[in-house]
Amino acid sequence: MHRLSQQCETVKKILSGTFEANIDVEEVHGGKDFALKVTRALFEEICSKLLDKCIAPVDNAVKDSGLAKG
Questions:
Q1: Average pLDDT for 60-69
Q2: How far apart (Å, rounded) are the C-alpha atoms in residues 45 and 64?
């Protein structure tokens, strides 16, 4: 699972500069290999709900600080 996590982190970084990347990990669980092509659109879809949950707390933090968003 550690190797899978590392691959996911690498793919996240690659997707900031390109439109697709591959995750390939041998023997990830029970001797089975894992391979997946991840597009930037898929990555954004997967992350969108988590990012949406961050908006209100960030808005509150900015408001509480007395700073402007700009």
A1: 91
A2: 30
H/E segment holding residue 65 = helix 40-65
Does residue 70 lie in a domain region?
Answer: no
Specify if 10 maps to a domain: yes
Question: 57 — phi, psi (to 5°)?
Answer: -60, -35
**What pLDDT does residue 30 have?**
85
* DSSP-assigned letter for residue 70: -
- Give this prediction's pTM: 0.67
Q: Which amino acid is at 34?
A: F
E strand segments, the chain: 20-29, 32-39
